[in-house]
Amino acid sequence: MNPRKALGGPVLACLFAALISVGAYIALPLPGTPVPIVLQNLFIMLAGLLLGPGWGLAATLVYLALGALGLPVFSGGTGGFARFLGPTGGYLLGYIPAVLAMGLVSRTGGKRRWWRDLLALVLGCAIVYAVGVPWLKATIKGSWQKALVGGLFPFLPGDAIKIALAVLLAGRLGPLVEKALPRRPSLLGAAERARANG
Question: pLDDT digit string (tens) for 129-188?
Fold first, then answer.
């Protein structure tokens, strides 16, 4: 195996962990909610699309581990394990299943398709909110209406823009990333092809 390609996954995972950390510093607080608008989820999306489920998950876990250890990599330059227990903890933990789902769906076919990447990102965002909104409701001890108004509705337009941008960037950057980290279809995609050939 080419040593450069063997190192491609770890290097790219660390690079994306750094990008996710930088994205967390670009935060816009919203009145009436403890959940800010951030760019970190844009890089989570790109990690899933470009690195796939394995290395995308690795990048996300490195980022979360750095924050848990106290490094100021969460929104607003904060860190520490207590952040996982606060109002935004569910969103942070939701990144784990979300990046797995995005990577898997994106790789259900042999070639990159924009509509498949779009579907992957919509599913990933839905997973993050499915974990984050109930967590927010529990921590603020509020109603579902308050949790949805404070933790979902204000973020949907921005997420739509980030999804469109991530799909565009993945299409442009994909061929470059795949030189260092060859694209491998997911097990789901392999099963579908085997079923079609059988």
Answer: 999 999 999 999 999 999 999 999 999 999 999 999 999 999 999 988 988 787 665 545
- The range of the structural domain enclosing residue 168 comes to 3-197
**Type of residue at 30:** L
pTM above 0.85, yes or no: yes
Residue-by-residue DSSP string for the chain: --HHHHTHHHHHHHHHHHHHHHHHHSEE--TT-S--EESHHHHHHHHHHHHHHHHHHHHHHHHHHHHHTT-S-BTTTB-SGGGGGSTTHHHHHHHHHHHHHHHHHHTSSSS--HHHHHHHHHHHHHHHHHHHHHHHHHHHT--HHHHHHHHTGGGHHHHHHHHHHHHHHHHHHHHHHHHHS-----HHHHHHHHHHH-
How many domains does the structure of the chain reveal?
A: 1
Q: What CATH number does the domain containing 117 carry?
A: 1.10.1760.20
